[in-house]
Give the backbone structure.
Amino acid sequence: MSDTLVTAGGLTRAQVAERVAAGRTNAVGARTSRSTAQIVRANVVTPFNGLLATLFVLVLLTGHWQNGLFGLVIVANTAIGVVQELRAKRTLDRLAVLNAPRARVVREGRVAEVEVAEVVADDLIELRTGDQVVADGTLTASDGLEIDESLLTGESDPVAKDSDDEVRSGSIVVAGSGRFVATGVGADAYATRLAAEARRFTVVRSELVQGTNKLLKWISLLMLVVGPLLLWSQFETPDTDTWQEAVTGAVAGLVGMVPEGLVLLTSLAFMLAAVSLARRQTLVQELPAVEVLARVDTVCLDKTGTLTHGDIVFDRLITEDEHDVREALALCANAPDANATSAALADEFTDPTWRRTGGVPFSSARKWSAVCADGHGTWVLGAPEMVFPDSADDPLLREAADIAGEGKRVLVLASTPAHHTDTTLPADLTPRALVVLAERIRDDAADTLRYFAEQGVALKVISGDNPRTVGAVAVSVGVPGIGHATDAVDARTLPEDPDALADVLERKVVFGRVTPQQKRAIVGALQREGHVVAMTGDGVNDAMALKDADIGVAMGNGAAATRAVAQLVLLDSRFAHLPDVVAEGRRVIANIERAANLFLVKNVYSLVLALVVVATALAYPLAPIQLTLISATTIGIPGFVLALAPNRRRYVPGFLRRVLRFAVPTGAVIGLAAYAGDLAVRGLEPAGGRGAGQTVATVVVLIASLWTLSLLARPLNGWKIALLAGLAGVAALILAVPALGTGIFLLAVTPQRLLVGAVIGFAAGLLVELVGRVVLRPVRESEARSAESF
């Protein structure tokens, strides 16, 4: 602590300014996205860009500038990647500011909210239920404060904190309130980055990213082996008269094996999906999350804030002694640990004349709170079955069960003459009243649940409320698998054994009286059974389950700790956005798979041609400029268009396996067909030279690749047919106009060569069609089922 002692009124403006000038702030440089420099570096400085730059220089040395046009394509791709990511960064950063956590600091005797980065050393910070601790410090006051430190220590049980106890950043307030002096801020804090500190434990697993990285690794290894052999073969082949021709042939083979646009395309698809969702008020805090949600097969829902609006209101009071009861409820409404229940009571019960002398704050684990009144004993407010677990025969408690069956939230108010501030219930409680609260069911909840049911996504409603209340709400919105409110399971009866719990979860869908620890156990049990789990929630009791789930979805009006650990935040708290997120994820993963097929087919036929020419000592049958033509018209342009197109195909596991199953045989067919075209024209025109073989091979690969594109673009519609026709027209124009075909693309076009190339190209196309019909049938069936469900 500094030389100037912190008073109960907190720091003064001068003291804050002094600490800011000294750099003693909580700013840690955490970013919601990469910096501009990082974006440029990540798109420019890559191993493949380095390789292509080297090949580009070598081609320029040969004297044929046209063969170096692939370098301009790489520059264009990189520029597009940088510009699009910068645009996405601006959009996402603006939304992240709206969702950024804030802290309550006491300065000059007044409580004010500031950004977390504006907290300074020695600040007096106020804590309330649902807050995430923003710095390390020492408590100066505690009113029933309980903190969950599991993000830091792994221990799930809340820890009671008193004055002079230490608190650490990254932990979560689950009950009570208090104040502490910040002694460790910024880099000096135990957890140096607040929301990021929580999120670092849950890195989103992306099948697309993992599959793409594997492909890049394998391709890189193949290039290390094949590259030297290819270069050697081009110098040794009888067709090579100069070193320039040998270098050109080797460069063509290597350029063809480089998947220059695949990583860029994957990143762009994620970013554009995130921007698209941002327009629907959904903040994506980790880009691959849009893909992962497409793989989700189980969604765990918290009732409050998800199926209902979460803004509970007072409905009615059932009691025989209204005066004392109203005074006690007025004290409860004005308790320091304000929550949704106390806020609802505050609208009805105001201006207490009794004096509060202590109490027990509400805890989602206990599900009750208490207030001590001077001369009037202790009053406990909580869930009937938790406050009176063994008194079901009481008429008031029986009435509570009936009301809960109507979908209302019911609390019991009980009293004891003793002054009680312990976290265990007093033994001599007497029920005094029932407090009935009402929640508004979301108008769009039923449609959203119906969507998930049609998509084959299982739903589990897990809530801390009374099972019959939760069951009634679930029935009213049409949750599949529950026919009556009494079908809901009381979580207090759930087994602790994970296997036994998983068995119950397979049979039941609605659970009430679920503790925060049980929510985590439910998520874990589902994951052990192989399910991909999404968890939605808004309260601090949901935070740990959101962290453990494959995808955590937080409501924008939820607790700061909940938003911090979630990968997705619904900024306007509308559960109805989830189908949009699922659809966006499916679009991304399905379209990237299509594009990956295109890129990998080129890599495979380039590898096949390289191996063939190494084995036969022939010249590589394509020049770099001709590969640039083929790549632009059959892969680059259509790949980007298809990656951004609508696609409602359901997620099918096995991205990498499917891509390889299609690309390897298809690429082999095209590569061998190109080689056959080269051999055929050599037999027909022995004096035709390299130009004749390259021309026929180019025509063969163009036709077979466009056929492959038509196969992957199915089902065809108007704009896809126009795209294919336009690309075919561009290729035909280049072949027909000598200034383009000969002058730029180094083709020696004659009618005979076009005929030979067309015959072999269409024959290869038919073989590609056969491969596609066998390999792509499951994908087509999945697309048809998905289209029927919309």
